[in-house]
Amino acid sequence: MKITGARLIITSPDRNFITLRIDTDEGIYGLGDGTVNGRELAVASYLTEHVIPCLIGRDPFQTEDIWQYLYRGAYWRRGPVTMAAIAAVDVALWDIKGKALNTPVYNLLGGASRNGCMVYTHANGADIAEAVDSVQKHLAEGYIAVRAQAGVPGIASSYGVPKKGKPYEPAERGLPSESLWSTEKYLRFAPKLFDAVRNAVGEDVHLLHDVHHRLTPIQAARLGKSLEPYDLFWMEDATPAEYQEGFKIIRQHTTTPLAVGEVFNSVWDAHDLVRNQWIDYLRMTVSHGGGITSAKKTADFCDLYQVKTGYHGATDLSPVTMAAALHVGLAVHNFGIQEHMPHTALTDEVFPHAYKFENGYMHPGDAPGLGITIDEELAAKYPYQRAYLPVARLLDGTLTDW
Ligand code: CS2
Ligand code: MG
């Protein structure tokens, strides 16, 4: 089999998505996701100008060799744009492989290791009462794991809390908005939120929380300690992780499980975190971390250290990534949990898919390949629109991590 062509489908049903379609001489095609929220066209250009010309004529079954060619062969390695572009190619090739062999991709990765992938979804509210209601609403929908975020009193726009009446979607069309942040107010508030949520839902529900990179290690240690009575499934992105050893400080002080890595793009971003067992869950998902080829290797590396997967699954990862993540998640031994922030109905219509949610779990479905398609006619009705993630400042105006 030979690759005969590859092209991008850029669409913005409710938000921007970059989808790569690779075609072969046998009429089989595959899809990959190259979306990097707020920097979409950089990946599009990387693929169109530099990658697609190198793919024509290659054997799509050579996923390992093509991965190495795009990673080592470029000389310039890593980075979100490069790794998302490599992922788009790699995921599309695995899709082709599965379709050609008439089997779901998970069967090529070791087969199903479980009946389904446990997922968590987002509950949020302007205040504690609204957040508790939102958790209960998601439990009623069948979720058994829920992330809770609430507006911090005195902070106009807290991370994870939607604008009135809208679903939570951080990227906004136009230039970046700016929000204000106070770590002191947040640290006093977060234990009150989980006290209320845990009391309302009882012992059995898995509760998660995203700090979104906003604390120093010692502040994160204090938060982890203060949340221990509420038995969290994880505390996420407690501190920025460029300096991996920072997590050692958090680890020394608290038994609250730690998740990190949605902004990582290489196993090297997590190397010290994993081999020192400073974290419990790695969040780098398939599309931002170089594709299925590298996700499988990274998961196997984590398994040696009892670190589990907890892949990022926000709406800026397209349904193609959700499908790929579920195939990997179903197959690897050390699957932990999958984030599920459902896409809008319109996005689901643009990307018809075989994966399903039922009673707290998702399954990738048994269609050959990834089980995902794209309605190109519908996609064409929604052209790309520039959008950015917000930026955050401290109360005195200092730029901080959003
Ligand atoms: C978040 C994301 O899902 C998460 O855990 O941290 O909402 C993140 O802010 C976005 O994916 C950024 O694009
Ligand atoms: Mg997060």
From TrEMBL:
Any one GO biological process: carbohydrate catabolic process
Designated name of the protein: D-mannonate dehydratase
One of the record's GO molecular function terms: mannonate dehydratase activity
Residues in Mandelate racemase/muconate lactonizing enzyme C-terminal domain copies: 128-257
UniProt xrefs under Pfam families: MR_MLE_C (PF13378), MR_MLE_N (PF02746)
Record InterPro entries: D-mannonate_dehydratase-like, DgoD-like, Enolase-like_C_sf, Enolase-like_N, Enolase_C-like, Mandel_Rmase/mucon_lact_enz_CS, Mandelate_racemase_C, Mandelate_racemase_N_dom
